[in-house]
Amino acid sequence: MSDQNNNAAGRLRQSWQGLRGKAMGILWGAALSTGAGYIFLTTSLGYGLVMASYDLPFQWRPIIEPHEAVMVYLDDSSHERLHQKYLEPWNRGYYTRLLKRLTAEGARAVVFDIVFSDALDPATDQQFADAMRENGNVILAADWTIKEYGVGGEKRAGRQFALPYALFNQSAADVGASTLFPDQGEYVRQYSPIIPREKIASEAWAAARLVKPSFNESNDLQQTSFWINYYAPDAKLPAISFYKAIADHDPDVKPGFFKDKVVFVGAKLQTVLSIERKDEYSTPFSYLPENKWASGVTIHATAFLNLLRGDYLRRTGYLLERALIVALGIVFGTMFVVTRPLMATFIALLSAMPVVFVNYYMFQWHHIWFPWLIPVVLQIPVALVWGVAYNSLQVYAEKVRVEQSLSLYLSPKLVKKFTKDPTLLKPGAVKHLLTILFTDIAGFTTISEGMDPDELARLMNEYFQTAVHNCIHATDGTVVKYIGDAIFAFWNAPELQGDHAYLACDAALRFRALKALKVNGHELITRIGLHTGVANVGNFGSDTRMDYTAIGENINLASRMEGLNKYTGTVVLITADTQREVGSRLLTRYLGLFRLKGFEKAVGVYELVGRPEQEAESRELRERFARALEKFMKRDFAGAEDSFRQTLEVSPEDGPARFYLEQIEELRATEPPAEWKGEIILKDK
To answer: pTM score > 0.85 for this model?
Structure first.
């Protein structure tokens, strides 16, 4: 009961340590994934990922073709067709012609992304102003100018918005700032309806509140910026060249082309001749070389359409965004620690998909975007790397622990085999032909009496270390268990060994070659029994403890062989089955037939004498003993007695000869039955 309680306590302790280790792994995984995500979200380190999270969905979404606005470009073709001189403002008479057509066709509003800051020709300017008043819905651009402040040497340069020429300013319905605020790389992603410090409306906001007066009441938009929802690359938005817009007949501009549309007029992308306004910026579509730049007027028009259609983009809220990053970090950090590396890698690939899908769904249908690349590109890989590293370390640590545990029983070669083939550690058994070895220290109980426990433990540890390392493991044997001062081992499992019987006998001979250990003046003599036979080999035990061992009657027979040594006065005994496997490769002496306790059939027994090179040393002893044994088995007890005594003349301490002399005395007192074939019957183990 005490052993069972100890085993249960040990298993519980191991389980608790395993759970605690797993919990620490999860905690670290969540901390790393969450921390990396949070740092990249809130610092400049993650700027690229955050901005790419905004940009990339535009590449996947189908192009949208809004019809509420159209651009009229001052492009290269218009410069050439209208003969406008290089580095000079355009003839404002052309603007007058355009306005008259737009008024006639019922355009909702006209936005000039052109700064008309100075007077040119009075008559032409007046006609342009009259056309603006006639239209009634014209918005002109205002732009920054540099102005010096202060007096004397204390002058400082500052900026201010320059309003259009007074005549035009009075004739226009409103003025809008043409200023854009690009990010790194000249990207324009956000749009400010109201320029913060100057409190001047942007072109898009001025146009929106002109065609939809309710925008003046939208204080939330006036006080912040919004993320632009780009519908298409610059070249694919509704637009027409200026010269076509003012032509009397052009197949691309049919009558009514501008009806109910807001018309934005400005310089076209890559226009190099127009000096009145020229600006180029990057957009989410700029990832492709052909869409590298977009004109400022296109961006203003897109922002206006966003306001008019209400489909401008919003970024997830400050708190929600951080909460999501933390939550995803915890989920990924936990998930990849509790799963095996291969499965974790597969889950990581799948985990990115819902994050991308949900973000795209919110982007497309609810006009909300989230920095989704942080979890996909950063948090998932960080959590995966940690999870794989943690589990790999755990597997390695477990492997080391198992190897250390197995090394107590198996040779290094077999330890490697066990760790490479985990199925060997699963419950169950198979039948194997084994050569089984049992050892025992002769007279150990008497020798160890009165010894200090610590000294006894030191002695036994030294003995087992030497015996296992130099004898059993040296011959690739498997130590099954230690039983008091005895060792139970076998060969040919878990790895098959064609010469398992020879290896086991070699181990037995190595025992005899060990440096003698002495206790209380007594030399420790190891008695060994060997047998070759089929046994059930595998993992046996309960839910709380399991051992790799072998069971069956052949195991018991090997144990009986070891016990037989104390009767025959020998050190190493092997059965006839083992001797057949070894053959003449080792020296043996046949000791006769023995019927051991618990076995019905008699077993042929041999003494393992030594190696072939020692044959001459024991030849006469073996020959005399063989002659004596032959007479014994033929019931010639008198002749046998005489021959056994002759054997003792060669070796006075020969145990088997003395044993048979005792048996002869008993047989003389009790005549053996007629069917007796010379076997010795032992009633004790």
So the answer is: no
